[in-house]
Amino acid sequence: MxxxxxxxxxxxxxxxxxxxxxxxxxxxxxxxIAAIVVIMLFFTWATEGAYLSAxxxxxxxxxxxxTGILAVGMVFVIISAEIDLxxxxxxxxxxxxxxxxxxxxxxxxPLTIAVTLVMGLVLGAWNGWWVAYRKVPSFIVxxxxxxxxxxxxxxxxxxxHRLSHQxxxxxxxxxxxx
Length: 178
Known about the structure:
Blueprint: H1 27-46, H2 54-79, H3 87-104, H4 109-132, H5 138-146, H6 149-160
Helix pairs in contact: 3-4, 3-6, 4-5
GO molecular function: transmembrane transporter activity
Protein name: Xylose transport system permease protein XylH
Function: Part of the binding-protein-dependent transport system for D-xylose. Probably responsible for the translocation of the substrate across the membrane.
């Protein structure tokens, strides 16, 4: 006679994964890919083929490049279980500063880019110092920093000064990605 003890381990086979016919493909992923394909087919039909043209694809990639770069940077913030609300205001501030350096001050493009990157590094390090060493949640640090001059300085210059009629190579910045 064998005794039945509670120390016996039962091995249960794993449940089959994925959708039948698509081993390893999650149903959610499959539905999202199918939705993207349906949307692309609809817009291709609605624009008589212009949606998938090389010109439109290039235009879409140019328009989403800045947002994509910012999103890649935000991945690291989100992975560390933090939230940073300063991405948009930093982009506006640094973009306005770069325009001022280039158009009003007449700085060469490499110097403008270098100084703008250093400004971004310093402001980002300031936020990071408060979060990492002072243990202040980034959700609190960002609005406090943005409550002062940096948030409103670019709006002041946009309202009171025009950059569009000045000579310089601001118009050529868009050609850098071409």
